[in-house]
Please model this.
Amino acid sequence: MRISHYVTALGTLATIALASSAHAQAPPAVPTEIEVTAPNHVFLIGHAVGTQNYECQPVASVGRVGWVLFTPQATLFGELDEQLTTHFFSPNPAEDRVVRATWQDSQDTSTVWARATGSAVVDADAIPWVRLQTAGTQVGPTGGTTLAVTTFIQRVNTVGGLAPTTGCDRPTDVGKKAFVPYTADYVFYKN
Model:
């Protein structure tokens, strides 16, 4: 009798785990500007904690300066708070070293570079939600392919990360840096 209770409990836990896992892989509801269509489907979702890093630089108007994003710096975590990837900007070898948004798997070091193909402002107090299309991939040194299969990435559920509104007002401010905390969810798709 005790064995049957044990088997029933294990079956219940497995059902809950499968339901939780399936829920984690469901695509989020997003604005049409950043939708990803079939045959692409979700294979990984990570919650990012990090900073959007800005530098005060000259802008198009002569004598004007503004905050310019020079890189994000974030770590993506899974449902159980396990580290999944790191996120930053880096040169993409598939595009003659054009600097792109980059994610590197924390286990097998496979890497994906992507370029923005759509954005939507969902919260005026946070960085936009974006859709990024793969611009290059690389397998890890031991053949890992976790991120090398990526076709699209969405950044959703953003909190914070906007450039400061002050501190970059005069040409003498050029070179100042600001590291602005943000969180977001990143949704990875493959064919």
Remarks:
- Residues 2-190 form one domain.
- The first strand starts at residue 41 and ends at 58.
- The CA atoms of residues 70 and 93 lie 19 Å apart.
